[in-house]
Write a structure and sequence with these properties.
Layout (H helix, E strand, L loop, with lengths): L11 H12 L5 H20 L4 E5 L3 H15 L4 E5 L6 H8 L5 E3 L8 E5 L51 H11 L2 E5 L21 E5 L11 H5 L1 E5 L9 E3 L19 E5 L4 H13 L4 E5 L10 E3 L3 H4 L4 E6 L7 H12 L4 E3 L1 H6 L2 H5 L5 E3 L3 H8 L6 H12 L2 E4 L5 E3 L5 E3 L12 H14 L4 H19 L5 H13 L2
Parallel strand pairs: 1-2, 1-4, 2-3, 4-5, 5-6, 6-7, 8-17, 9-10, 9-12, 10-11, 12-13, 13-14, 14-15
Antiparallel strand pairs: 15-16, 16-17
Helix pairs in contact: 2-3, 2-4, 3-4, 7-14, 7-16, 14-15, 14-16, 15-16
The structure holds ligand NPW, adenosine-5'-diphosphate and potassium ion.
Length: 496
């Protein structure tokens, strides 16, 4: 089981293409399924201990993985049962079922087990699961020699097959019931019911403890709301080489200061204040706690820290060529003064982090015309206002916005997506929901400003800022406020 940090993320079509490329070299689908099922079995065995396991198998290759896993688990000495939704519809799944020597129960009547493994549907699910399953046989399954491969009642030891009682079975209901009754619920590749690429639920699945992604991570594992249902995510290697421009965010390499460091070499951040002074203060504090050597706040500011260098806003103060990044937007306001400050900031030729109100005062063409490195940090409302609404998935939207503006786009939320104009994407794994409190976005802007001023390239700076922010939130526990979060950036940085 491989941890997900830094791993490539593939769509369903890209994963199929990667599998096809391996198959073109002479490896069979059955071999790939065997590898997948074997890896699943070993992972489940380790997690289940001596507890009994129930594997739910669907009609496609996800179900095929389930049959292989059942066979290998039995060979490993586990107590394992199999319940099927319907007969297999692929040759590989049929062959896998034929290899399972035990009985096959009808999903409609299967009794729960302490460990539930969902191998009903994977990347092939393209439409909602009906409350009732059209595939559930209400007559006994086909006999040997049927077109779909080995018939279920020809499988050695499968006399227990019983057709669904009333001819109909609610797949979703059964999945929920059996999962809720289990103490450990594991989804194979993805929880059945979720769409692989969009982050949406076609049908709402239960919440799993663990999802074992096969061969590569998919958007479903990181985009909300889908990611909520996956629980912990681990990757299983099935020997399919994969690459992608989309990767899971990983911890950054941030060197501590060396003996030749001084405050300016560590990076000078300018934060421009506006009508809501506290927001700029938070961004400034975050920049300091994320490791900037010098932070100056231009405009009105109230409280500590004393290390923050305050100055009146002026073109002269902005012209300081030691400034490595300017942060503008938190608490800026949208009045005439805000517009004047924004115009001056854009004209100052420093790398920019544009957040909050700055995003409300700009349009994509004006951002595109900028010649300095730019990082945009919109939440969903700011994103819609700047780029318009769309039904596209969050990765596509962030990528399009980056290509349109030439800027790095940090599309925030519980599933932050960072996109570069060249198509590279970094996906942040689920951060603390306690981040949903005022001012945490200001903290993020400051942290990213510190990374940009330290000399990281814009994508790396945005990624490092988001990582530090997520780690600071994790370390802050419940009910923190943005001030606590800014302070916790220090220990997040120390953890590297
Ligand atoms: N390819 C490979 O080499 C490898 C693939 N691997 C594994 O394969 C998985 C993908 O397999 P898959 O493509 O067979 O799709 P899967 O997710 O099992 O389901 C498709 C089936 O469900 C049916 N169906 C769809 N919607 C439905 C609905 N609402 N209600 C009812 N039925 C519905 C659909 O029917 P159809 O749409 O054709 O009518 C079709 O029969 C992947 O996640 C991984 O686990 C690994 O073994 C490694 C090697
Ligand atoms: N439920 C959540 N789970 C994880 N992160 C969240 C959640 N809600 C918000 N966030 C994060 O918290 C921050 C909120 O930013 P923003 O909405 O700009 O707040 P503010 O404007 O008050 O500073 C973003 O970094 C966002 O990604
Ligand atoms: K599944």
């Amino acid at each position: 089981m491989i941890r997900i940090e830094g791993q490539p993320v593939l769509t369903a079509a890209e994963m199929r293409a990667a599998e096809d490329a391996v198959i073109a070299t002479g490896v069979t689908v059955d071999t790939l399924m065997d590898r997948a099922g074997t890896a699943i079995a070993h992972a489940v065995r380790r997690l289940a201990g001596s507890n009994a396991i129930l594997i739910l198998c669907g009609p496609g290759n996800n179900g095929g993985d389930g049959y292989v896993a059942a066979r290998v688990l039995a060979e490993l000495g586990a107590t394992v049962r199999v319940a099927a939704l319907s007969e297999p519809r692929t040759d590989a799944a049929s062959a896998a079922r034929a290899g399972w020597p035990g009985p096959i129960e009808a999903l409609a009547e299967a009794k729960p087990a302490p460990v539930l493994v969902d191998a009903l549907f994977g990347t092939g699910l393209t439409r909602p699961l009906n409350g009732t399953s059209p595939q559930t046989p209400n007559t006994p399954p086909a006999k040997a020699g049927a077109q779909l491969g080995t018939a279920i009642d020809d499988v050695p030891g499968s006399p227990n097959w019983t057709p669904a009682s009333a001819g109909e079975v609610s797949v979703v209901e059964r999945l929920h019931t059996l999962t809720t009754a289990a103490t450990l619920a594991i989804a194979i590749d993805l929880p059945s019911g979720l769409a692989t690429d969009s982050g949406h639920a076609l049908t709402t699945p239960p919440v799993f403890h663990l999802t074992l992604a096969l061969g590569a991570l998919k958007p479903v594992h990181l985009l909300q709301p889908a990611a909520r249902y996956c629980g912990e995510i681990r990757l299983l290697d099935i020997g399919v080489p994969v690459t992608s421009q989309i990767e899971v965010l990983k911890s950054p390499h941030l060197a501590p200061p060396g003996p030749d460091a001084h405050k300016y070499t560590r990076g000078m951040v300018g934060v421009i204040a506006g009508t809501m002074a506290g927001a700029a203060d938070l961004a400034a504090l975050a920049a300091m706690r994320a490791g900037a050597g010098y932070v100056t706040l231009l405009g009105d500011s109230a409280g500590p820290p004393h290390a923050l260098v305050r100055a009146a806003f002026s073109d002269h103060a902005l012209a300081n060529d030691r400034i490595g990044a300017l942060v503008i937007g938190p608490g800026l306001g949208r009045d005439d003064t805000a517009r004047v400050r924004l115009d001056a900031a854009l004209a100052a030729s420093h790398p920019l982090v544009l957040d909050g109100d700055a995003l409300r005062l700009l349009d994509p063409d004006r951002i595109r015309a900028l010649t300095v490195p730019v990082i945009l940090t919109p939440h969903a409302g700011e994103f819609d206002a700047l780029f318009g609404r769309s039904a596209d998935d969050k990765i596509t939207r962030a990528r399009d916005a980056a290509a349109r503006t030439g800027a790095i786009v940090v599309f925030k939320g519980a599933d932050t997506v960072i996109a570069a104009p060249d198509g590279r994407v970094r996906l942040a794994p689920g951060a603390s929901d306690w981040l949903s409190t005022a001012g945490t976005g200001d903290v993020l802007a400051g942290a990213i400003g510190a990374m940009l001023a330290a000399g990281l390239d814009p994508l790396a700076a945005a990624a490092a800022g988001v990582w530090l922010h997520g780690e600071a939130a994790r370390r802050s526990g419940p009910a923190f406020i943005a001030d606590d979060l800014a302070d916790a950036l220090r220990s997040a940085r120390a953890s590297l």
